[in-house]
């Protein structure tokens, strides 16, 4: 009986190997605020899942500077939800060029590099086998010397009441500007489930940009609440620490978690 319980626990923990944590969500929210993507591009960001884009197998961590050539082909996008949040049904995926920090998008909006309606999540990956491709993925092409552009990949829930606006209901070739928020509102898209971004810069930056600071995950609410009374995060040295929120760390943590669970199950069998 005990072994059955522990075996279930092992399975549960193994399953959670792909689940995002609350800390992952807070880290990405903090990144979006620090990079001023919120509120300049999107007014608010309260994700329930973590989105990762891998280009030819190499995952782009949040805000990572990517080589323009490397991000030319369409990425494989994976999505992991926190615990039981559902990732079933239809979604809309988009990528826009949020340009450099401090850009005022004006009435024309942002360049649309990718827009597909009706994608689904299959085994944790975005699948477009039954999607309606409006704008096929077009890799970043920032003007030389125009600074580090932020490319934001967004995944919206797409309810059955979704209705594409007339000008974006059929394929549109090439990269064009559009008003992202107006599109989301007018078409009846649902929540912004997950998003991530990377940067691409071509040539030398000749603009002078506002400085954004790094995200210190140890200062986020979840890190502090799970640290307990003995956790000390008051050292000034941590202020210059790089953001330790990269997915590889999660993968290692998940493997350790799974190993512990399997050892626990094995131990319980040995005790019987
Ligand atoms: C998803 O979209 C397809 C058409 O693209 C539709 O047939 C199906 O009912 C939709 N599913 C949901 C859950 O809305």
UniProtKB/TrEMBL annotation:
The keyword Kinase does not apply. Coiled coil: none annotated. Pfam families: PBP. Residues 226-247 are annotated as: Disordered. Residues 1-19 form the signal peptide. Keywords: Signal. PANTHER family: PEBP-LIKE PROTEIN, PHOSPHATIDYLETHANOLAMINE-BINDING PROTEIN. This is Nucleus protein. It comes from Favolaschia claudopus.
